[in-house]
Design brief:
357 residues; alpha/beta; 2 domains; 12 helices; binds adenosine-5'-triphosphate; binds magnesium ion; ICDH/IPMDH; tartrate decarboxylase activity; magnesium ion binding
Length: 357
């Protein structure tokens, strides 16, 4: 589904979001020009703590009308705990997008790039190149449960895990389809069916059932405990990894951490059918400790732009950005301080835009 006319809602948010988003746009504009993509950007000031301070809420009542007609949301970071508690800013913005736009996939690449120091000893670029697919709407993060005998010694709390066939199958289908586009065509499922005796065996069952439709994909499964160990010890084993909401939450922090700095990792909250806009953002937050200094690494935001183009059907433009990122990361002088370089945010963004070919 490739569309040459794209309308992108740009939401810089808070802190370094406001510094790295312009660099993401700089690169998107440059790549759009080269590929003759007519990309329009509309910027919004809501989903930020500044907006909250003026209006007493994170977003206007009609936010859905304002951004719902766009092809995607290009998001910076939200959160400024000095003025608004994190749970208020998060629930008032990102969580609303995720729910209302049915972004049921959370997608995070973990790829070791040249020039990025790897915390795992002896690993080279090429050794880590995986996509973590997390179920983003149900599973362990249901709000079903409660407290009984509150305040007494017999107090009991419980919280249910919810897995629906539709919910499980749609994330698995996305993961299988993604694996089918990748050279290794490999899918790993995260489970814990040896300890969680109802929901996780169901997850395994659905994986086995769907695997029948994808004979070209090699499928394996690991229990989450040993899987986290393998992420650290044998990250080269993995290609696409699919997981429930909780396990995916853990793996999608662990994966990018194994591949180096937080400053370069991107993330997509995706509605694959494009019935609603998907949201693309860097993994990092608003980083109050380095905000307003112009030193944040913009690569995570720029990479998020590449993911967005890929989602919107412009795979070649997306690969161009990825090649430019690799080129810039290989040049010590172009790296930002978190990677041991001297470049500031704008220099780094500009050098990626200039490195497009
Ligand atoms: P979140 O709000 O998403 O949970 P956080 O606020 O706990 O995240 P971040 O904002 O991601 O954390 O920052 C964590 C650390 O990483 C900080 O010390 C920050 O300065 C650093 N950091 C984050 N993003 C970048 C970046 N793009 N460039 C350089 N350093 C960064
Ligand atoms: Mg934060």
């Amino acid at each position: 589904m490739t569309d040459n006319h794209l309308k992108i809602a740009v939401i810089p948010g808070d802190g370094i979001g406001k510094e790295v988003v312009p660099e993401g746009l700089r690169v998107l504009e440059a790549v759009a020009k080269r590929h003759n993509i007519d990309m329009r950007f509309d910027e919004f000031d809501f989903a930020s703590c500044d907006y909250f301070q003026k209006h007493g809420q994170m977003m206007p009542d009609d936010w859905k009308e304002q951004v719902g007609g766009h092809d995607a949301l290009f998001f910076g970071a939200v959160g400024w705990p000095e003025t608004v508690p994190d749970h208020v800013s998060l629930w008032g913005s990102l969580i609303q997008f995720r729910r209302e736009f049915d972004q049921y996939i959370s997608l995070r690449p973990a790829r070791l790039m040249p020039g990025v120091p790897c915390p795992l000893v002896g690993r080279e670029p090429g050794d880590i190149d995986m996509m973590i697919v997390r179920e983003n709407t149900e599973g362990e993060y249901s709000s079903i449960g409660g407290k009984m005998f509150a305040g007494t010694p017999r107090e009991v709390v419980l919280q249910e895990t919810v897995m629906s066939r539709i919910g499980v199958d749609r994330v698995l289908k996305y993961a299988f389809e993604l694996a089918a586009t990748r050279p290794r065509a490999k899918l790993t499922s995260a489970t814990k069916s040896n300890g969680i005796s109802i929901t996780m065996p169901y997850w395994d069952e659905r994986v086995a059932e769907m695997a029948k439709d994808y004979p070209g994909i090699s499928v394996d499964k690991y229990h989450i405990d040993i899987l986290t160990a393998h992420f650290v010890l044998n990250p080269d084993k993995f290609d696409v990894v699919v997981a429930s909401n909780l396990f995916g939450d853990i793996l999608s922090d662990l994966g990018p951490a194994c591949a180096g700095t937080i400053g370069i990792a991107p993330s997509g909250n995706i509605n694959p059918e494009r019935e609603f806009p998907s949201l693309f953002e860097p993994v990092h937050g608003s980083a109050p400790d380095i905000a307003s200094q112009g030193i944040a690494n913009p690569i995570g935001q720029i990479w998020a732009g590449a993911m967005m183009l890929d989602h919107l059907g412009h795979a070649e433009a997306a690969s161009d950005i990825m090649r430019a990122i690799e080129r810039i990361l290989s040049e010590p002088a172009m790296r930002t301080r978190d990677l041991g370089g001297q470049a500031d945010t704008q220099m780094c963004g500009k050098s990626v835009a200039d490195a497009l070919d």
